[in-house]
Amino acid sequence: MEQAEKRPGVNPKEEDEKLGARGKGLAGTGCAGSGLKSRFTPQEPETGAGVNLEVQLGDLTLPNPVMPASGTFGFGEEYAPFLDLNRLGALVVKTITLEPTPGNPPPRLMETPSGLLNSIGLQNPGLEVFLREKLPYLRRFTPPLIVNIAGRTVEEYGELAARLSAAEGIAALEVNISCPNVREGGIVFGTVPEMAARVTATVKGQTHLPVIVKLTPNVTDITVLARAVEDAGADALSLINTLQGMAIDLETRRPALANIVGGLSGPAIKPVALCAVWRVARAVKIPVIGMGGIVTARDALEFLLAGARAVAVGTAGLVNPRAIIEVIDGIKAYLQEQGLQDVNELVGALRI
Asked: How far, in Å, CA of 10 to CA of 4, rounded?
């Protein structure tokens, strides 16, 4: 992907941290303030009320159906001061690549109406540092650990799967196929069914762990991709990844992001994500994890009714670190209000 020239004297970390200082910018978009509250979020979360929140993703058991979306939760340490990580349905870390990846030059974050554009570029310390420094910390917690992986070639996906599968404490792999294949002229793995299937089969052949494939919405028919990776052996699907978008700075007449285009997330994409989940859940037999614009428990409940067996909270957590906990408590409150005892009763229960 073509990149704009790097702007001198700008530190990527400092640029990213500016997002926190601009909290008011997101406050009016549904990502913060009253938008994060739901009448299904009790002031004092109840416990032991006889409501079952446990869900199954194939052979993977989650204590509840709510987890962070990869790329928005770091390696868990960043959120530990704000919430009890043991309360999450799963821990999902940011994408890991074989070698350290510096990411794209800044600016790489841009607020939009009801959303966020990012072009972070999969910045991460690489597999060796993850295994040596990050994984020991993550092993302290009880929720299943899901590691998201990305490669530039099919072979890299296989090597990542093999080496992570040999490590203790990892419960599942999430395969990010929204990456360009360097051997195929930059074609994104997840936009071509045959490539997506090949990556899936390669990862499955190198691991005993459940394999979750994360689908991109930037295709003509997402159900075609879903069926292709299901046939190749995927144990579950997660969707959607970000929508492609861009913004322009009128003062400079330049792209607002140094990488020109980025991924759009946040409440703005929820209707698109919800529709994709509904369509895919009806097209495949394997479990679906829904994500895209989930801010409140009401949002999450819509995804469950559309057919998702679990959900992931992403951008909302960047504004309200406790958003995931509020969604969990809100789902439980809704079940109690409706006289339901099992969250699985809601999965695919949309009335048409």
From this structure: 14
CB 325 within 8 A of CB 69: no
Q: Is the pLDDT of residue 174 over 60?
A: yes
What is the reported pTM? 0.88
**Which parts are annotated binding residues for FMN?**
70, 94-95, 148, 176, 214, 240, 266, 292-293, 314-315
Annotated binding site: 70, 94-95, 118-122, 148, 176, 214, 240-242, 266, 292-293, 314-315
CATH code of 83's domain: 3.20.20.70
Of 179, 213, 257, 284, which one is the catalytic site residue?
Answer: 179
Q: Quote the number of domains for the chain.
A: 1
Examine residue 308 and state whether it is found in any structural domain, yes or no.
Answer: yes
179 is catalytic: yes
Examine residue 162 and state whether it is found in any structural domain, yes or no: yes
Residue 141 lies in a domain: yes
What is the rounded CA–CA span in Å between residue 287 and residue 301? 16
- List residues forming the annotated binding site for substrate: 94, 118-122, 176, 241-242
CA distance 255 to 271: 26
pLDDT of residue 49: 59
Which residue segment(s) compose the domain that 108 sits in?
24-243+252-346
Beta bridge partners of 185: none
**Structure tokens belonging to residue 120:** 């972070």
The DSSP symbol for 225 reads: H
* Closest by Cα among 109, 147, 145, 123 to 25: 109
Which of 257, 215, 217 shows the shortest CA–CA distance to 2? 257
Please report whether residue 192 resides in a domain. Answer: yes
pLDDT at 42: 42
